[in-house]
Amino acid sequence: MNKNLKTGLIIGGITLTILGVAYWFYKIKYKKVDTPDSETDIEDNSTATCTPTFPLAKGSGIGSRICEQPYVELVQNYLNRNDLPIFSLLTIDGRFGSNTESALKRITGKTTVSKNEYDNMKVFVVSELTEEENKTDNTGDFWSIPPLTLFG
């Protein structure tokens, strides 16, 4: 086989692999999340009969606090959209565990989310999702996620 052809195939394969991995991370980072409009929407859609309590902290969305999962999912989505290390993305599972807590601490310096902080996160995530839905083309830069400082 020609040396130039072999080199071209290797470089092409590496390029396609990098593009595939970048696209996969893009799909994870911008996973669509159903954002709760109100606490009654969450209670109606949940099999649990509890009222979400703030601040959200480690253990929220688990066990007797399962009705908080949509709230925790929104926080996880917010953290994924604002965390720069692409390889430390959270799994959006609605469970506030160690990974969610450490990502929250890395971004905000806190380990809990108050109702006011949650509302600010919700505005950001909903506006991002609306912006994505209104795009007519896919020319947005994958790496240009605007930083947001909500916590003084």
Protein architecture, described:
- The chain has 152 residues and is mainly alpha-helical.
- The chain folds into 2 domains: 1-30; 33-134, no CATH class.
- Helix content is 52%, strand content 0%.
- The protein contains 5 helices and no strands.
- Helix 3 crosses helix 5.
- The model is unreliable at 38-48 (pLDDT under 50).
User: What letter string, H or E per element, gives the SSE order?
Assistant: HHHHH
The count of domains is 2
Uncertain segments of ≥5 residues (pLDDT<50)?
38-48
Q: What is the share of helical residues? A: 40-55%
Count of distinct strands = 0
Spatial gap, N to C terminus: 61 Å
Q: What is the gyration radius calculated from CA atoms?
A: 19 Å
Label this structure with key terms:
152 residues, mainly alpha, 2 domains, 5 helices, 52% helix, 0% strand
Short description:
This protein is mainly α. The protein has helices spanning 3-29, 39-45, 69-82, 98-108, 115-134. It has 5 helices and no strands.
Secondary-structure blueprint of this entry?
Elements: H1 3-29, H2 39-45, H3 69-82, H4 98-108, H5 115-134
